[in-house]
Amino acid sequence: MATTAVAATAEAAETALVLPSGLNARLHEVLTDRPGGGLVYRFRFVADGFDPRADQVEVVLDDLTYLCREYALARVSDIGPHPRQIVISLADKETEFGVADPTARQVFEAFAIENNTCIWEMF
To answer: Which InterPro entries does the record cross-reference, listed alphabetically (predicted)?
Structure first.
């Protein structure tokens, strides 16, 4: 799978986004790729102290949905062509995409875009 990085401005990377859980997230990077089904934008966020415990699945999903609806969706039209899917990831530290890091706590979910909103697609 070929992946392309989309430049994130320094300002965007430094701007803290207050999530519904109360965590402060910042944009790490935006990647694009075209798997068999079409264009996908991957918005990768970092939040210090992020700890996705099993008993907080709904809290984590609320944070990821918020990042898709309130941040990513508003920016996809500025990046380029309309994607088939947006993938949101949230981690406790920056990691290299596609490289396993067993010390990182990270989750990701995919969202379809319908009627100008993010619709969660279970992986």
So the answer is: DUF6497
Query: Tokens 């990377």 appear where?
Result: 13
Q: What pTM does this model have?
A: 0.84
Find all residues with CB under 8 Å of 89, minimum gap 6, and list them: 42, 43, 44, 45, 106, 107, 108
Residue 30, classed as helix, strand or coil, is strand
What's the CATH class of domain 3-121?
alpha beta
Burial string for 4-30 (b: 16+ CB within 10 Å, else e) reads: eeeebeeeeeeeebebebebebbbbbb
